[in-house]
């Protein structure tokens, strides 16, 4: 799966900005890839990009229409279909972040086949994968892990990749979830693969590389999440991480989606992740902590990060407030 | 998925006994369900059951033709097709343990639909599953875990169920792999579900039950297996085990399929499984050890089991040599 850019961002009839969260993430991390946006009637989201028709986008060189928006009820209605068919007719690929698979809508599948364009359903994975083999491979890899889901693992990984590129370090962000895949232009939604192949999927998307190249692997879930820990475990083994970065949101009262389940502490999270990571890479270390301090004021955030850094003797940053330079410093020592 | 018995065991043209391993396991644990066997030319396996044609099996009340045999090259050839179509025509369901899905062979799918019979592809799972919710449910559950794959987890679980039934304890074996599914008549191949739903699949197959009922859950893989640990992790969380039994094969030089990966020791296996099990059931304990001592002589086996029992102060048995009574004694204390 290789999604070609530039992109035209389809916002449909998004009821609010939140529905366009994926699209916002793509524009934030790959602004040069996003040529314009296409909004239908009643769309309440705005990426601040030029509004374009399909024809205008084609003219501007757009290769892919990106559905980076949650829709009402998970159904692709007639009002959307018209635009999607127009895009196919104009020769564009469509990359879709919805649960609904475009490839199972006969009208779209037939039109795409006739026109020779691709429909990418990035939340799904139907390809063939190998079982993980655990064999040591060249190149370096860092994985973002977390105390919980949605604590900033993707943001942290992208910030590390950006900082590495700024320093001239060879690096590639490796996407394991839908927003990440749009941002990378490729990847596999690891939570969508058959469970026998979780670590094999990660070995596939973060393969052997130059000895001085870093793969920055997007994490998923948490080893302490009762719903998704299996995914996190396979990711840890498959990424064969030389280093992990522990991500956390300090104000959360319970694990996401699991009232009654409290979050693990940072020490436990670090130790248990390290233990399992060392199965496939005995030299794995912790490169630091990435804390999402959005809910704290400056003083509280600064104090919390200083306390964590002192407790563990490791860098602790909020990637949004501070960037990730101290973590990349640490990675450069490896 | 509910596979009706009695079964006719299809051995096809199995080149040797090993190819019929699944069928042998079914006959061992559910002899009353196995009415006969059907062998084609050049079949070198023999379950010691009466040889039957499809017509004879139908006459004997057989409901399902069971493909519990590995075939040559994973392809269902014309010589098999004839028998399968005959079974469908006689109104039998077919339950298939091969990787190849019967339901994707148009000739079989059409014949089955026309006749109103079911094709069960037990290595696959296409149904809808919930994400695991981790909510405490009633009833008791014991899970077989292991240092590695193929160390006797299914056998141990079935032996525990049998011993419990002998004692009049309410219990149900819960199958998570293909042979187990034939033996239980239902279940889900957990390694075949989408990875987001591993723990949800286990919550589904081992649901809330009477407070004094035991679900004996078949384990898969190992938390220390670089290919499959994600599956084992989800199983542990989803089963919400009150007790685990640690299974081991003491002469294995490396993890199955992974040369260069040594087996974890029993203490580590026990502790790490307990730690993760306690996420969804804080009261989980170890009920004992089940050692596959097939490769040892009597004296060596007896000494090894005595040593392990003394080291941990817990029952240690070889289910084949000794049965699992001491483990069930321990479970009755819970």
From TrEMBL, chains A, B:
Q: Which residues does UniProt call coiled coil? A: none
Secretion signal span: none
- D-glutamate N-acetyltransferase-like C-terminal domain residues: 131-328
Q: Which Pfam family is an annotated match for this chain, by its short name?
A: DUF1611
Family matches, as Gene3D superfamilies: NAD(P)-binding Rossmann-like Domain (3.40.50.720), P-loop containing nucleotide triphosphate hydrolases (3.40.50.300)
Entry superkingdom: Bacteria
Where does the record place the D-glutamate N-acetyltransferase-like N-terminal domain? 46-124
Under SUPFAM superfamilies, the record lists: P-loop containing nucleoside triphosphate hydrolases
Give the matching NCBIfam families. Answer: DgcN
Protein name per Swiss-Prot or TrEMBL: EBNA-1 nuclear protein
